Amino acid sequence: MNYISGKILSNDELISDIYKMIVEVPIENANKIKAGQFYMLRGEYIEPLLPRPISLCEVKENKLTFIYAKVGKGTKELSRMKQNDSIMVWGPLGNGFNISEAKGRIGIIAGGIGIAPMLQLAKDLREKNSNDLEIDLHVGFREDYYLVNEIKEYIDNVYISTDTGKHGHKGFVTDNFKINNYDLVYCCGPEVMMNKVISMAKESKVKTYVSTEKHMACGVGACLVCTCKTKDGNKRSCKDGPVFLAEDLFTE
Hints:
By secondary structure, this protein is mainly beta. It has four helices and 15 strands.
């Protein structure tokens, strides 16, 4: 495992239990890092021993941005880390989103913390073909939203849904998502939401890339904690994914 030491530049709470961490770390070939890849993060002297897998939100020069939810012991320890603290970083890991086929109208659909990789994805899509793509973001939150304003710069339209109706549509992000409006779709979010999008994709035949939200431990496919079912048998989200074609996935 090739961990390197980075320095935390900031670690701010955006809304309740949602944090944005920016880490300064030596990066080689930043242009080869893909949206949808993830990093293993852990404090240099902090338990638990196992690191936490965190999706890359943005890469810029020698800075990595991560958006994460404080949901367990590991992320709770990450949330306690301060500016100038050292943090151990290993990555990028996983396959990331495929943007080579992007053309026409692109739909990005995310739920909650699943919005994290969509900033880098939107940037990469716009950089690849700034004039010929129309990019829509559909995103759902419980009540308050985050990261949307940063993504707006790179997309054409934003559609927000919230459980409470505080912002945008009251209900699920999938309620008003018409997959047939798009030539290509990218998805990340809670399993229930992604299963709905997967079903839409299979019915419509619209090519859809899904970043699976599975619990991960080792990050290299050795522990099999993050196994998911595909038409080609069981696959490991950390090693074979986390991004898969919707048509290849079985939902439960």
